[in-house]
Amino acid sequence: MIEEANTKTIRVLSLFEMLNSGELVKKKEAAERFNVSEKTIHRDLKEINVYYTKYKYKTLVNRVAYNRVEKGYYLRAGIGK
To answer: pTM for the whole thing?
Structure first.
């Protein structure tokens, strides 16, 4: 159980860092990298989005968004709340 929790923490923080560095996160590639399902990556991205929408309200980044053309997730900049 502890191993699983540590793995999730590392995965979510890695995704967070990727987004913060301007990388486009593609679910399939991330799922393969972390050896999890695409649904798991989707849930992780939703958790990161909750963090941005509820706790980072005074920053220029206001949510995780999906780019349909490039088929990946990125941090969308906008006016903070």
So the answer is: 0.82
